[in-house]
Specification:
The chain has 662 residues and is mainly beta. The chain is built from seven helices and 38 strands.
Length: 662
Amino acid sequence: MFNNFKNFELQFRIDGASSGKFHWRALMITTGDIFPNYWTKPIEDLTTVTAFNEVKDTLGSHTRTISEQGKTISQVVQTSEGLITRVSDLIDNQNLVYDPTNFSKYKEREPNSNLVMTGTNEYKLLRIAQSGRTTNGWRGFQMPLHSQKFVAGEKLSYRVNLWIDVLPDGKVGFEIKSGNSIGGFTISPTRTGAAQIFTGTFTINKTVTKTDDFGLHIWLEKNGTVAVGQISIVRGSQPPNNFVDSTSFQQIATESLVQQHQGSYSIQNLTNAGSLISGINLGANGINRIIGKATHITGDTLIDRAVIKSGMIDKLKTSNFESGSVTTMVLASNSVTADKIVVDQAFFNKLVANEAYLRQLFAKNAFINSVQSVRIDASQIKSGLLSGDRIQGGTITGTTISGGLLIGETKIKLGAYGSFDAINGGLQINVPRQFNSKDGLGVQFIGSYGRGDNVPYGLFIYKDSDFTTGNTASDSDDFLLTVEGYIKAKGIGWLKYGKSSINGSTTGTISYWNSNNVSLDFGGSGNDIYYSYNGNAYSLWQIVNQHFSDKNLKENIDLSNYKALDFIKRFQFKEYDWKKIGNRIQKAHTKIGLIAQDVQQIDSSLVYENGGLLNLDNTRLTNIALKGIQELIIDIRKLNKRLEMLEDEHRFNPSISNGVVD
């Protein structure tokens, strides 16, 4: 081996022989000035290759992550606040969202988010409905996550199922938050319809060890109706191909976390949801804590001083035992002999106790100031006052009954024939007209459908002519429900109530229960009544106001000098067909008519706008037509008078011929 001043060359030469054999073994080439004393493997063979090994330095932290694919992950994060070390289970494609199938845990993100639980036989969805908003509201809901620890720069992938009823005019957002957002993504749907799947990847921008309690925020930016279901968020840059609910697996997975901060050092064993299983915390103030279900110490243990709130000791030996009181389940009968007991009046005075446990007690007659019992069995209990968490018996008679629970087919009588009954799947109340009346008011609360037309679901109030016969609900013209206040309801009968806005002002709406394009709106900026159809609102006041002509509504009254015929001459009368609007009847062909835009150019006061469309002010046009007729009548009278004069002149002046006057 020699250096030719350009590079190193290694040569094997056999001089003085045309043929032969030679062997070599343990060939090793190294760099440096020190010759090795023995052969070793290259350093590459000594390095363990892992499926995921990353070292990342950022402005705020130094992170090293090592993992054996599909088994565990080891991670060290060093920040200015301290050192965090964790070793945890790593399971491929685990969904970080808690119970995305049934939404057993969620909360409203902002007031008035209008959340409704819906879904299919296989999974549930949470629907967000917003309408009439002129500014962004970000209304929606929050869900818990299985993991509260995320590292800046790590990739998360998602798969979301959206059902779009009303296309949003903004975005649908998903954020993971720890106070502020640490990562998220938005979706902009382009069509309505069910089961629309969206996938993608996003990046965590901040390292955190704890997120919000409900760390996943889902929101609707502005208006729309969107149902969200089957949310999948997994670690890595590969979006899920299918929906997976990993709630049960994630709750089993555990994580070991070591944290070293200024003034404290802790070792914690956590569930993947972040709940503490056990841990040791060493505090700078000298107070140390061991937390767990149980702590087992083997061998001899010396404790200088101890305060034990509650404990069980199998065997205790002590030279001196001091106690304020001794409570025991068993006291040996031979521990206190009869000769040590003085039976006198003082004995019986001491025998009176505040509490006593007796297995059986029989007495012909007993006066007891207070009785606490798990169960009382009796054919009849008579009392001025009977109270308890649970009272069960054949007949209970008393002035006052107060307690926590009445179970079984319970009936409380009201008068002679009325009652308060707990029935199968509901509650029946028969309120008599008078104490001995069989008729009165019936009230039902039914919790299930399918019981027939005469047993409606929910609350049913009716007049009952006879409580003893049943099935006697009848129609009534009386007021059966009176409320001193407003009632908030989705609708009454076949009418649907709602809230909308016209020109930026809130209105209340009434429409047919399944109609989505026609309604009556009340209120608005003009405190008016509007007929709304396909998004256009037509003011009733503008229509009614066109027909008012009372003198008390007018001022600056004077004779009109405008020439109506001059207006009429400028009008361009046209022939046209009407377009068909929705399912409305199409207007017939118009042979002579005016176009509002043409009339507006002549005089804008002859046209007004209502519901976004121009309308002709027919009252004003009629007045112009009437004045035009009046002007024609005056002209005709003048012509008639002139004609009479010409006829008279012709009659007395024969020189005028052919009716022509020179």
